Amino acid sequence: MTTARDVMHPGAQCIPVGETLDRAAQLMRDMDVGALPICDNDDRLCGIITDRDIVVKCIAAGHDPSRVTAGDLAQGTPRWIAADADILDVVEEMAGRQIKRLPVIENKRLVGMISEADLGRHLPEEHVATFVERVYTTH
């Protein structure tokens, strides 16, 4: 059985809730990623921030990214998957919720992230096609 751990990108780095969005953008640039998990002071996942969030919800809204924190943009309960979850459960979670990145959790701690590209590298073509159709089709 292929698990979330088998396909994830290990060692995802959290950004603290109190860190500013300009710093989040710098980390994304330095790490060459488009999203960062947001973690609280106990390293618990409390959201995900994307490069698009920074542009649309901060800059385009007229806010200063050096004054807005990652926690300010964290909304709702973040979706995640257990490290030992079956890959088909990963696909269902991502496709069913139309999300492109999914944190992987073990022992209540972030251990990695799964992206569309990770799925593309590890799934048979027919599963990738189904995933893409479900994520990018508007309902």
Automatic annotation (TrEMBL):
Name of the featured protein: CBS domain protein
Q: Which domain of life is it from?
A: Bacteria
Query: Which PROSITE patterns does this UniProt record tie to the protein?
Result: CBS (PS51371)
4Fe-4S as a keyword of this entry, yes or no, is no
Q: Which keywords does the record carry?
A: CBS domain
Q: Where is the CBS domain?
A: 8-66, 73-130
Q: Which PANTHER family match?
A: CBS DOMAIN-CONTAINING PROTEIN, CBS DOMAIN-CONTAINING PROTEIN CBSX3, MITOCHONDRIAL
Q: Which SMART domains match?
A: CBS (SM00116)
CDD domains tied to this protein: CBS_pair_HRP1_like
Q: By its UniProt entry, which InterPro entries does this protein fall under?
A: CBS_dom, CBS_dom_sf, Diverse_CBS-Domain
- Top-down, what is the taxonomic lineage of the species of origin? Bacteria, Bacillati, Actinomycetota, Actinomycetes, Streptosporangiales
